[in-house]
Amino acid sequence: MGEMNFMYKVGICAHFGFGKDLMNGQTDKSLAVWNALTKEYGEDRIAVLDTHGWKKHPAAILLGCMKLLKNCENIIMLPAQNGVKLFPRLFEILNQAKHRKLHYIVIGGWLPEQLKTNASLLDSIAKLDAVYIESNQMKDALTALGLKNVLHMPNFRNCRILSPNELTTSNEQPLKLCTFSRIEKDKGIEDAVEVVRSINRKAGRTVYTLDIYGNPEKEYEKRFEEIVRGFEPYLSYKGVIKGEDCGKEVLKNCFAMLFPTHYQGEGFAGAIIDAFSAGLPVIATDWRCNPEVIRDGIDGILYPTCDNSRLEEILTALAEHPDKLNALKTNCLERAAYYEASRVIRILTDNMKETKEAEREAVNV
User: Fold this and answer.
1) 122, 193, 209, 210: most buried by Cβ count inside 10 Å?
2) Domains in the chain, please, with CATH?
3) Are 258 and 100 in contact (CB under 8 A)?
4) Closest Cα partner for 344 from 161, 157, 160, 162?
5) Buried b (16+ CB within 10 A) or exposed e, 299-314
6) What is the pLDDT of residues 255-311, one digit of tens each?
7) Do strands 130-133 and 208-213 pair parallel, antiparallel, or not at all (unpaired)?
8) Nearest to residue 198, comparing CAs of 314, 58, 35?
9) DSSP letters of 8-38?
10) Are strands 175-180 and 46-50 parallel, antiparallel or unpaired?
């Protein structure tokens, strides 16, 4: 029996939001996977299905999934909390006559909790060829639920890493801080504002400025507008950083990035890699998989989740000795290299290759 000649090596079913001005973890990761695979195989070997607004166009999405299965050797899906209830099961059913390889790249850290209360979804995901997750913590949780198809593939970025001679250091006050994430309460935006405000008020001068970047969640827009209206001159909302270079021209001029998240669905935030690529240390909560990514005292500083007093102590001490944080900048660049797209995507492409070779061997037995 000869091998099939597929029109495409890979079909990606994901939320791309083409033509939309979106900034969120799902869209960022979907585009990062597409970019990395395009560099690996060539754009003409990659097919895509954009799931943006899929609930409004179920027939078109069904047809798109069928086309991917017809024309692609491998299917990669990247659904979020709502899409995961549909796409793994849908592809599993449609694939019964096609026998394509089904790969699920998980975005964020919410999946284990959802599977604990959804046995049918757990069964569907167990039938996929591979599930790629962003942290070892999450891998352990899924393995404990009985999944045997889980691979650790950390988050990654396609952007350039600064060279050491491009690094800038900050020693004079006011020192510039930033946040670089989706804007909502559980991401700790209000915590960052209050801590900077407290430090400056106690000092009687501007010790730190804080620039906030990102898109506000719809449910948080009104609250965030109220917060911005009450900003002192040292607090600023800067909107969304656009461009393919991960905002490095902005980030490299900051003293530190704050990441005070306590978001329940937090996974491996790509913004941490963006900061590392710019040689920018990250001061973050020890929430979820942050300790796997940020090495405390090496390329950033970790503190107990929601402990604003501890964050204030850390920033107050660093204001007196900024050289202690500046000394971590080259470590950040080294850490960023670990999460380069060309390196991490090999986990996926090597597994697709191994799966195909195993299939060949089975046919030849």
Assistant:
1) 210
2) 8-156+341-364 (3.40.50.2000), 164-338 (3.40.50.2000)
3) no
4) 157
5) bbbbbebeebebbbeb
6) 999 999 999 999 999 999 999 999 999 999 999 999 999 999 999 999 999 999 999
7) unpaired
8) 314
9) EEEEEEE---TTS---SHHHHHHHHHHHHHH
10) unpaired
Q: Using CA atoms, how far apart are residues 313 and 301, in angstroms rounded to an integer?
A: 12
- Block mean pLDDT (10 aa), the chain, length 365: 71 90 81 96 97 94 97 97 96 94 97 96 98 98 98 94 94 97 96 99 99 95 98 97 74 97 95 96 98 98 99 99 98 98 97 75 50
Say how far apart CA 192 and CA 183 lie, in whole Å.
12
pTM, two decimal places: 0.93
- How many CA atoms within 13 Å lie on the side-chain side of 35? 16
Amino acid symbol at 216? P
